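Re: [help] complex structure
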Amino acid sequence: MPDVFADLVGQDDVVDALRRAAASAAAVLRGAAAAHAAATAGPVDPDDADALAAEAEAEATEGAGGADQESGMTHAWILTGPPGSGRSVAARAFAAALQCRRGTGCGECQGCHTTLAGTHADVRLVVPEGLSIGVGEMRALVLRAASTPSGGRWQVVIVSDADRLTEAAGNALLKAVEEPPPRTVFLLCAPSTHPDDVSVTIRSRCRVLSLRQPAPEAVAEVLVRRDGVAPDVARWAAAAAQGHVGRARRLAGDPEARSRRDAVLAVPRRLTGVGAAFDAASALIEAAEAEAEAAVTESDAAERAALQTALGAGGTGRGAAGAMRGAAGQLKELEKRQKSRATRAQRDALDRALVDLAGFYRDALTAALRAPVAPVHTDTAALAEAGAQRWDAEGSLRRLEAVVECRAAIEANVKPRIAVEAMMLTLWKG
Ligand SMILES: [Zn+2]
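Output below.
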């Protein structure tokens, strides 16, 4: 039976560090339990008493928020790594190991199971639905995280996109991280520890573990082993996904994801003039919108229905008018949240397309340089080669840069259509 860390692909160093920390966390709990037993049961064997005192001291250190240097267990962690490298997988696995009854992340006990399934009472996951995590959400979370863990182990708070915290939310979190309740562990996931992603003060309070972009071979191996994907499909998908494990799995198993990718990779061929460049920009934006809408429509409707039921829509009688006004406010709030989530889904879909496109021009560049590296997109390698002949290394690089700049511009809140149109013109003209 594979343990909770089995899904982390190609991250041996991080897994080692997390295993050691989980073992030391388990030792802290055992020490606390033994100290408690000793305190309530009267005299103990003097040999044990020393050990217990040491354990109790270790816990006191933990309680004060200090890191135990040898084992590396501490109250606040930042897990960084490129998208798809498994930041949130690592966070969830570590949470499971902390809640594991055997203290190892066995993958079999109830603590492991419920954590991985997302139903453990002492593990809270914050996933920003919109563009950022607000202060209200963070305050509520910090407050609940300070309570005694109901399972008797740890309160774990996972913030899946810590780079999307608003400044106020970051401050609320900082306060908790500065003076952590003795049994609370914060796991923050972010692309990097750059100050744009995580504030310097939060960074200084956390232990940082960096995940790497896993090698395509490692990603292909896990697709074959865990998902039963045929080896040749797995190799193609792993290369095309550029180290993004979830993306590789979708490409291998979801025909729609494949046809969306095909449409994106047809763009370079279609750029035959100004008009074609603008058409390609429209097509790319609209495809991202359609993909995002498909992703959120169902949950939007379900949320709206649930809220209307909860508000008792259609009620009459005394107080109904006032209740209706309150209900309208709540519905408006929900719509705002949903709109923000839709915008994020669109940007994510567009970003995936841009990453695919960047892979194509990267292939053209490596072909022009005759670099001995495998292409990202094996199925368009011949096309990239033809591009390289026309554009040379310099022209290929300019086009690759145009895609990179487009991603950066959208991240910096430039209107996507404007950024994509500018990119397409460069991709056409060079
Ligand atoms: Zn377990």
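The beta strands are 76-80, 123-126, 155-159, 184-190, 207-210.
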